[in-house]
Every structure is written in C-alpha cells, then in structure tokens.
Amino acid sequence: MPHSDGAPPNRAQSAAANTKLANELLPLVATVADIAIVSSHQGSIQDVHWNVADTADVDTDVFRGVPLEDTVTEESRPKVREMLAAALAGEEPRWREINHLIDGIGELPVRYQAMPSESGVIFVGRELRAVSMLQSRLVAAQRALDEDYARLRQLQTRYRVLFQTSNEPLLIADGRTRRIQEANGAAGRLLGIDAAELPGQGLASVFAVESRPKFEDAIERVLSAGQAEVIVGRADEAGQPVECRLTVFRAADAMMLLCRLSRGEGPVEGELAIEDILLGMVGRIPDAVVMTNVEGSVLWCNEAFLGMAETALAGQMRGRSLAEFMSRPGVDLDIIIDNAIQHGQLRAFSSVIVGAFGSETPVEISVASLADEDNKVVGFVMRDISRYDQVPSRKNGGNGEAADHMMNLVGTVPLKELVRASTEEIEKMCIEAALQKTGNNRASAAEMLGLSRQSLYVKLRRFGLLSSRAEH
C-alpha cells in the first residue's frame, strides 16, 4: 500500500532504493574501492573487483563460487554472516573489519560495508594493512613501555629498601643546588636529626658553622675534579666529629653527590682537622707527590705533578700507570717499586718525567712504601732538578783523581790508547752508579744498564768491583 505524502519510507522501500543505488554505482565502486565483492543471497562469491596495491599477482578467479566465509579467518566468519543478513533485511549498512586469508599474503585486514543488490549483496572494502601495522607497532610500544615501567618500579623498590635499611649513613644531594634529596635513617641517627627533615636542607648545613666553609670548598673541588674527597667536621645537632666521604656521580643529565658518613675517630681541631692540614699542604707543595698501588697505577697526585705531566685534572690521572710519564718506564718504575717494597724506602733516584705534550722534566725521586693489612701504597716525592747543573761534580780523590790522571796522559800515549782507557773508566763509573742507585741489586743494575746479568758479572770482575761490593 503506498505511503502518504510526507510519511517516512518503510524498510522494504529503503531496501529497494539501496538495491537500485548499488546496481547503479557498482561500476564506480569497483573502480574506486580497494576490494568489491559481489555475493549471492546465500553468501557465495559471484564476482571480485581487486585494486589492492602490491598484490597484482593475486588470482581472483579462485574466489568465484567459493563461500565468502571460507576466505576469511575464523573470528571473522560471524561478522560476514551478520553483514549478509543485515544487507538482505534492508538495514542501514555499517563498517565492519574482516581479515581475509590470501595465499602468498597471509592475513589481509579489510574494512567492509555491505549493500544489497538485485543479484545478492555487494561488499565494498578498504584494505587496512598500513593501519594494522601502525596498530601493531603501537601495541608493541605500549607493551615495551609497560615492561620498562614495571622494571623501573622494581628497581626503585629495591633501591629504597637497600638505601633505607643500610647501616651506613648516606646522604644524596643535587650537585647544582647542593641540597639534600634523600637521607636514610642511619644518617639521621648519626647527625641527631629526623631523617624525614633532611631532604631540602643544604648539604653543608648539617655541619657546625665553623666546619661549613671547608665543606663547601670540598664540594667545589669534588665537582670540578671528579675525585672523591674526605672531610672531617662537627655535626651541627649531635655536636660530635663526623667524617664525610664525598663522591660525585651522574644521574641522567644531573650531577649528584653521594655523602657517606661515619663517626669521626678523634676531636676536630679548630676549623681544620690535622688530616685536612696535611692533605692541603701536600697538595700545594712545589715538589710533585704521587700515590700508586704496587702495579704503579696512580691513586692520587698533587698539583705539582699535574704540571709536570701536563694534565688538567687529577681525576684524569687516576688509574693510569705512572710508567706512562717516565722516560724509561719498563726500567725505572719496576726498580723503584721493587726496592721501595723490599727496603721500605728509596732516596735520590734520578729519572725524567715526560708530559702529555712531550716536555721533559729531570727529577730526583724519593720513595716510601706504605703498607696496611689490606693493601700496599707506594708514595713518590719528585723534585725538579732541571735548574741544577746536570754535569756531576767531582770530589777530591776517587773519580776526580782518575780524571786528572787521564788529562796528564795527554801527549804521552797515543790517542787510541787514551780513548780506550777513558772508556773503561767511564764504564766503571756507570756500573758503580747503577749499583749505588739500586742498593747493590745486581739484577736491577744490569736491567738499568741494558746488560745481561752474565755481562755485568764479567765487567765487575774486570774492574775489580766484585770483591769490594761483596764486602758491603
């Protein structure tokens, strides 16, 4: 029965209109859409219009006569049936995402809209591979972000448990503002302050007023040189001596300070403890001072040595071998360390310090071995002797008499014999000097002179030095 003017069309009329429109627009749809599938009322594929990019080798003839459900994944089959039923019932079409299974491609995600036609139903689709790939990347990124966040939470929990339960008093401060960011309970007990009140305070403020200037100076040195430093001061609240070991480290883009506190061993002497006085004096004396381990790796050095080594910061020296800066590294350093450990000290050992840019500084080295229960430290004091006359002076007697005797022979014997005699005398003097420098250690002396042990013994017998040295 026809509807009256102005009345909305019923479902049958809308379906008929959609069917007519679909039939008229099929050629256009087949050209514009990525995929257009014409199926029967029962869902069997009658025709396929394929415009998917990068899939020119797909044979669409294999789809004809095949149920549309058989070309999609298992989870997409209910969607196909629902779309087919809705189109035949004349319902308004809506977009649904369906995954096809295509030989040579795998799963092909397509977004379809189903419209009724005279012969059945037309499925108009847009392929979603790019969207699917982006969604997969987004899901993967979200999963990785969640895993990183969970790992970060675990690390934070472990850090806080270790930090707060540690028996060692610890403070962490911002290197730029010098303000405490975190403090554990042990630090609060040692300083006589509630640990919850420490964050936000200046790092130097936990010390008494008279100790703050040297503490602030130490912070500047640690931040500039990157080398750890120990300061002793008096706690402001507790009033007792406190030792602070300052270490700088980097967290992301921020410089941070770790302050490890301990109870001081003795009273603080005025504004400066005796350890600070000694450290300041050794750091500023004109003679170079270097501390190494038994392998010769630098542990600490003062400003004078940095000048000889042509190095800007003490932190750049830490861990480097002292042999890198000695003229004969394989000989001098081994001899010095061996003798220092064996005899406890070594005096007036001559060598040359070579700077990073090639400058040479002749030095006289005194060495002492400092040993404790855990490790051994070798201390070097190097005096610059470049301003002294490098020609050795001759005292009356001994080598001076030999030199005078050589001069008196000029004109009485041929030059060839005079040169040979002079060479032997110089060789004897060098062997005596090497034995003196090495504490009569013949193996070290042979190494210093570049001789084998056997050759040195031969020369000692020839010059009559073997018996006289044995007596000593």
Rounded to an integer, what's the Rg over CA atoms? 45 Å
Note poorly predicted spans. Answer: 1-7, 266-272, 389-398
Please list the strands of the largest sheet in the order they lie side by side: 2-1-5-4-3
DSSP E strands, number: 15
Helix-strand string: HEEHEEEHEEHHEEEHEEHHEEEHHHHH
The helix content is 25-40%
Count helical runs: 13
Largest sheet: 5 strands, antiparallel
Structural class: alpha+beta
Q: What is the residue-averaged pLDDT?
A: 79
Structure description:
- It contains 13 helices and 15 strands.
- The longest helix is centred in the N-terminal third of the chain and has 37 residues, at 129-165.
- It has a five-stranded antiparallel sheet.
- Residues 1-7, 266-272 and 389-398 have low confidence and may be disordered.
- It has helices at 11-32, 77-88, 129-165, 185-191, 212-225, 274-284, 303-309, 329-343, 399-409, 415-437, 442-449, 453-462, 465-471; strands at 35-39, 45-50, 96-102, 106-116, 121-127, 170-174, 180-183, 229-234, 241-251, 254-263, 288-292, 298-301, 345-354, 360-371, 376-384.
- The chain is elongated, with a radius of gyration of 45 Å.
- It starts with 10 loop residues before the first helix and ends with a helix.
- α9 (399-409) packs antiparallel against α10 and α10 (415-437) packs across α11.
- By secondary structure, the protein is an alpha+beta fold.
